[in-house]
């Protein structure tokens, strides 16, 4: 099941048996709750196992895969949050990082309760905003982050993010970004990773892939979606799509395009629904 994305937050619930999805990475936080079974994944060079009631917190740009830890399969809910939402709350502090990928900390469990409700529940705008703020503060507290801002120029990084967001469908030069931010490219790259968890180019590529997903769901062809989103060609887009989501655009569209909203979860023996988002 998947909810309609609202304000940059995506919410899904899924069930898998066997292998769920290949190694991939994305530029959002992936935060979820295992509901049944054993949810296993490789993350930061180790296998992790999440049991029912555990909370999963995957940092942006960290590679991971997914599979059932037992023959019974597993069921989970997950939200995908753009780092910029947490930055709005943390006001320039470095992004929280929780080592391990799985936590039983009650502060994180409590802070995710609202956002990890059943997919059929529609979150009101203020409800979602308050829940994101609570989650950002809980992540920072559990990560042991200081109250002071991280080292770097947060406002330059935010100007770079806004500029890339507004111009992702075309080639953006380093000189343009330097001019737009008033920061040299090397310092800006460090700032961007500190405050948004990924590189400027990776952020640009992800915005193009977001546009491709929207266009594919509306019926646009692969070639047209690739060109309109700013990729050199369809094969260029497909390579990035596979590396990011763990499956090809055609396979993603086949699964996600038919996934129900607000109804019983789609059972997938192999070929991940969640790889499109996890």
TrEMBL record:
InterPro entries xref list: AraC-bd, AraC_XylS_family_regulators, Homeodomain-like_sf, HTH-like, HTH_AraC
Domain HTH araC/xylS-type: 158-255
PROSITE patterns: HTH_ARAC_FAMILY_2
Pfam families: AraC_binding, HTH_18
UniProt GO MF annotations: DNA-binding transcription factor activity; sequence-specific DNA binding
Keyword set includes Transmembrane: no
Gene3D superfamilies associated with the record: Homeodomain-like (1.10.10.60)
Top-level taxonomic group: Bacteria
Keywords: DNA-binding, Transcription, Transcription regulation
Protein known as: Putative transcription regulator, AraC family
Gene source species: Paraburkholderia ribeironis
Lineage: Bacteria, Pseudomonadati, Pseudomonadota, Betaproteobacteria, Burkholderiales
């Amino acid at each position: 099941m998947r909810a309609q994305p609202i304000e940059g937050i995506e919410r899904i619930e899924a069930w898998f048996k066997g292998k769920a999805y290949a190694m991939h990475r994305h530029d959002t936080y992936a935060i979820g709750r295992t509901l049944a079974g054993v949810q296993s994944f490789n993350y930061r060079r180790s296998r992790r196992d999440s049991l029912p009631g555990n909370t999963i917190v995957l940092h942006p740009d960290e590679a991971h895969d997914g599979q059932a830890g037992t023959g019974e399969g597993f069921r989970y809910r997950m939200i995908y949050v753009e780092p910029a939402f947490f930055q709005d709350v943390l006001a320039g502090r470095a992004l929280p990082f929780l080592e391990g990928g799985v936590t039983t900390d009650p502060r994180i469990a409590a802070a995710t309760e609202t956002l990890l409700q059943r997919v059929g529940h529609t979150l009101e705008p203020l409800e979602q905003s308050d829940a994101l703020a609570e989650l950002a503060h809980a992540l920072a507290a559990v990560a042991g982050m200081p109250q002071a801002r991280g080292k770097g120029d947060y406002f330059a990084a935010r100007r770079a993010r806004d500029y890339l967001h507004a111009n992702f469908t075309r080639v953006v030069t380093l000189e343009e970004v330097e001019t737009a931010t008033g920061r040299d490219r090397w310092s800006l790259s460090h700032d961007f990773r500190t405050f948004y968890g990924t590189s400027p180019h990776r952020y640009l590529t992800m915005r193009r892939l977001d546009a491709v997903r929207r266009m594919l769901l509306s019926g646009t062809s692969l070639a047209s979606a690739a060109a309109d989103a700013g990729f050199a060609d369809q094969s260029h887009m497909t390579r990035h799509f596979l590396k990011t989501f763990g499956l090809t655009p055609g396979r993603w569209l086949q699964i996600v395009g038919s996934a129900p909203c607000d109804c019983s979860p789609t059972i997938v023996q192999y070929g991940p629904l969640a790889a499109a988002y996890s």
